[in-house]
Amino acid sequence: MTRRLELMPEVLPAPTKVARSESVRSRTVAHMQRLLATAAVLPLADCTRADTQSSQTVTIPVSSATAPATATSTAQGTLLPPPTATVTATATATAPNTGYAVVDPMPAPARCLGLAAASKATASLKQAGADWVIDIAVTLPAGGAWSGTAFAAGGTISPWSGTIVRSSMNNQSAKATLKLSPGTTSAGLTFPVSCAAGSGSIAITASFTGPAHAGAQVSLSKNDY
Questions:
Q1: Is the backbone of residue 37 left (phi > 0), alpha (psi -120 to 50) or beta?
Q2: Could you say which of 14, 151, 187, 200 would form a disulfide bridge with 112 (CB–CB 3.0 to 4.6 Å)?
Q3: In this structure, how many other beta carbons lie within 10 angstroms of the beta carbon of residue 111?
Q4: Comparing C-alpha atoms, which of 129, 204, 198, 218 is closest to residue 169?
Q5: From residue 104, how far is each of 97, 101, 110, 160 by CA, in Å?
């Protein structure tokens, strides 16, 4: 009598029921943690193979001003320089930022602009004893746009490159004698003025080709301040 063989039914493990409270993200994170734990226990590759290469000594050439120094190149490729002095960092104080600053501020515009050019001025160079002096005379324009313009009463005439010997000033005219400083070829006076726009001054500069001598040609320049 022949016996028939039959296949046994496949036996599968009982399914694990997933808790309702677990989300897809939490299950994924747990799976990744299991993978990392498995990888951590795997044997690491042998990366510590002994190096049989011998050490080599390298000599670094230096200038005659310094002592000879040698360094050893090991199997790991380390090149060590000779010991040097320790450098200590020193904190320096930083000046506070004060913002934009003007070193040479521009002067205020002249209130009586154009008055100097409209005025008449003369100058003459002459010798007075051992000194040389320049006589300067100025007359202001009258009427029209310059009506009311005058030399400032009580104002002071200011010189440069010389000393005032004598001076006089009224509403429309002023004059002064200026003793020149030794060796100078340019000197001048500043006269205080007033106009409809306010107070200001005009400067008369006398120049000549030095040294000072009789008959020297004197040139004038006039400026508003």
A1: alpha
A2: 200
A3: 17
A4: 204
A5: 19, 9, 17, 21
